[in-house]
Design a protein that fits this description.
The chain contains 6 helices and no strands. By secondary structure, it is mainly α. Helix 2 runs parallel beside helix 6 and helix 3 runs antiparallel to helix 6.
């Protein structure tokens, strides 16, 4: 049921000329520029989603860290002290991992790519318009595929940082929970 609704909703974004499974297209068929732009937009949305997830977890972790920082961690038991150090260290490491996810990883290309803002910003307006005017559709498709690959790596790194941040956050919560159980 869910898959039917999902396919129906996202069918609006897929060009009717291109089969859903690209591997099933005929040998002479080419992928339309519109289809490639949809893929590019989806990857861009995945980057935004990764940023939002990392930002939400970072906000939660900062709140937890402030709560932990104002708590009294002087315990008579060595075990409770160890768990409190693990809880604080894990939440701090999670915050650092999530902060690293926001550092841009820009790889400026040596050649002009009209899809990448870094390439565009290096040119003055007239040079940019001149280069874009000479652009052929086949070249534009190649630039889109290159940018899709680069953006996919960026999106993947955001999700890897999130996964690591969640693991460290869970470790911190479990340590803090054990402190409360043992106390």
């Amino acid at each position: 049921m869910f898959l039917k609704v999902f396919k129906k909703y996202f069918a609006l974004f897929i060009s009717k000329k291109v089969p859903a499974d690209i591997s099933q297209k005929d040998e002479g068929d080419t992928v339309s520029l519109e289809y490639i732009q949809n893929i590019h937009d989806n990857i861009q949305n995945m980057i935004k989603f990764g940023e939002a997830k990392n930002g939400a977890l970072l906000t939660i972790n900062l709140g937890v860290f402030l709560k932990l920082a104002h708590s009294n961690f002087i315990y008579t038991s060595l075990m409770l002290t160890v768990f409190s150090v693990i809880a604080i260290a894990s939440i701090v490491l999670s915050i650092l991992v999530l902060l690293f996810s926001f550092i841009p990883k820009l790889n400026f290309q040596k050649t002009f790519n009209p899809i990448f803002f870094g390439s565009i910003s290096k040119l003055d307006r007239n040079a940019f318009l001149k280069d874009v005017d000479k652009l052929k559709e086949k070249e534009l498709v190649a630039y889109y595929w290159e940018q899709i690959h680069i953006n996919s790596n960026i999106a993947m790194s955001k999700f890897v940082y999130f996964k690591r941040g969640v693991f460290l956050t869970i470790l911190s919560f479990m340590s803090y929970g054990l402190i409360n159980i043992i106390k």
